[in-house]
Design goal:
alpha+beta, SH3 type barrels, five-stranded antiparallel β-sheet, 5 strands, 12% helix, extended
């Protein structure tokens, strides 16, 4: 156990940049526009110390409630003892990115609306798990010979 209990204690791996991802933050992350009610992911950039959220919020998804020139206000759910509280934090734009958690859902809604407009017959839109794969034979490049101790038992194979 480390002796320190500071604000950034035990964050060596969490805030570290990935392999060959070191250096200054790309301008595309700073130039993103965020709107109220939009879902964003809090992902801390260890190279930017200003406006860095607490390590607890790293990897969480929240909703934008305020947009300032230098920071974005995000509402994030936090478990406190036996309840979940909505915490409002302000984070610099380097530490957030637009969430992709609703892309699949929005695509399904878009497809359903298009089917309604095209007057296609209603289809079952329930998401179902994929069926198991059917049987198949794996063929190798080399010819292999099987040696059985009792060949009468295995005649039906060949």
């Amino acid at each position: 156990m480390p002796g320190s209990h500071g604000y950034r204690a035990r964050t060596r791996q969490i805030f570290a940049k990935g392999f060959r991802k070191h250096g200054a933050t790309a301008m595309s992350t700073v130039l993103n526009t965020y709107r109220l009610g939009e879902l964003v992911d809090v992902v801390v950039d260890g190279a930017v110390h200003k406006g860095m959220p607490h390590k607890l919020y790293h990897g969480r998804t929240g909703r934008v409630f305020n947009v300032n020139p230098n920071s974005i206000g995000v509402i994030i759910n936090k478990e406190v003892r036996n309840r979940i509280e909505q915490k409002r934090i302000h984070v610099r734009v380097e530490h957030i990115r637009k969430s992709t958690c609703q892309t699949e859902f929005k695509e399904r809604v878009r497809k359903a609306e298009q089917e309604k407009r095209d007057k296609k017959p209603k289809q079952i839109r329930k998401r179902m798990p994929g069926a198991p794969k059917s049987e198949f034979v794996v063929k190798t490049g080399k010819s292999t010979q099987f040696v059985f101790q009792n060949p009468e038992l295995h005649k039906e194979i060949f």
